[in-house]
Write a structure and sequence with these properties.
38% helix, alpha/beta, single chain, 2 domains, 7-stranded mixed beta sheet, 15 helices, binds nicotinamide-adenine-dinucleotide, Aldehyde Dehydrogenase, Chain A, domain 2, Aldehyde Dehydrogenase, Chain A, domain 1
Length: 495
Amino acid sequence: MAEKFMNYIDGRWCPADSGEWFENRNPADWDEIVGLFPKSGKSDVDRAVKAAHDAYKEWRLVPAPERGAMLKKAGDIMVERKDELAKNMTREMGKVLAETLGDVQEGIDTFYYAAVEGRRLFSHTAPSELRDKMNLSFRMPIGVAGLITPWNFPMAIPCWKTLPALVCGNTVVFKPASDTPLTATTMVEILLDAGIPPGVINIVHGGGGAVGTSIVDHPDISLISFTGSSLVGKEINSRAGAQLKRISLELGGKNAQIVMDDGDLELALEGVLWGAFGTTGQRCTATSRLILHEAIHDRFVDMLLKAVDNLRVGNGLDTSNNVGPVVNQGQVETVHGYVEIGKSEGADMICGGRQLTDGDHAKGWFYAPTVFTGVTQEMRIFQEEIFGPVLSVVKVKDFDEAVTVHNDCIYGLSSSIYTRNVNHAMRAVRDLEAGITYINGPTIGAECHMPFGGVKQTGNGHREGGWPVYEFYSEIKTVYIDYSGKLQRAQIDNY
Ligand code: NAD
């Protein structure tokens, strides 16, 4: 019988009120059930929100440096548990061990960064218009934060949200993706071991429909931070927006790497392999479009084809593999559906295009890394997020066309250009419509102390990571202190 894991609500590990469970299976080996998790619903969310609401009264008064010190301790615990966490993450969502170790490290970095922010949380002071009067502003907590996360960065993304929420003095109701409940549960365990009090953090497992919408709709949740698909993000925006909640949305991407005729082709090749096929292409920042200057197009495609042929697809726990499985059956079907669309649109599929079912692949959701050339801007494989190991190659005649092609997209998360021409590099920084631009690096590689997020339909303008996320999780209180001993009327007595 598989191990059962619980929700954590109001300082207690507990099953769902329904008494039902859902399975978490290894996408590289269906026979392995990683665990059973509570299939929760509205009543579980209601209890969690009440606990978080009650705990907020005291947690908001704990000095931020003290809250930060708990996060520092949690980071230390996570360092000790790093290997175990990475292995479990590979078991539950498939990406290769080097990447799950990186994902946990991003969590650790975020703990240490949040701990330091607990000593900062800067706001402004400014001179008063009047004598003997002082003007200040402070960052105040907001209340209960509802956090909803996807499965592709099972530790990094929950940490990006939970830790700034806590250090700013909010309490949390957290719903992780049902493909990665184990990593999320361990993050909560670590927070508790570091001394986070009962009720301050609550985790409720289950589906988006039952648990997610109950969080979004709950009137005692003041802010919602969501990372996931644009479709769900738009629904959350309208539901939570109707209650005037504060909402942060980090949504889809269709990121492109540009390679110019003066670029370092070997470096650009390493970049695109990592950007397109790392995490089996299931990153919001995945390189899913490759824009090649016509002078190097044919040579680069040849190099790419050879390199893709050498990628080893298999169980991510085997460190000789480069690419793990796709996360689940639904995602394999989506990926294959797009491959069929690409073929019917007239693009040339030069490799891949099929599910792998032989030998070691027989019990997992493996898909061959796939490349299309001859892709044009009107094609759906150029425009739509696929979220799998599929790369669309477009040929352009010069830098200006590369920028135009790059920007012809509803999304704008990450972008990349390989060039040795400093003018092109600087223009790319200015003109590529994306929240992130890499010069001579792939579309991925965020660092936790820098703002992360996108433009256009990738989100609603907020950022995860870096200093701006602390602005999202706090509200400004403006304070005027008059020490003149008399009534001073601004805009009247001083004019
Ligand atoms: P998803 O939108 O299907 O699910 C994300 C989360 O929302 C899950 O926890 C899910 O259970 C929950 N959910 C589903 N329906 C809901 C609803 N109606 N109300 C409330 N919650 C609901 O996305 P996914 O498949 O888990 O993740 C892949 C998507 O996430 C891709 O589009 C990817 O680009 C995006 N993503 C974006 C970023 C970013 O920072 N921009 C990072 C990672 C992933």
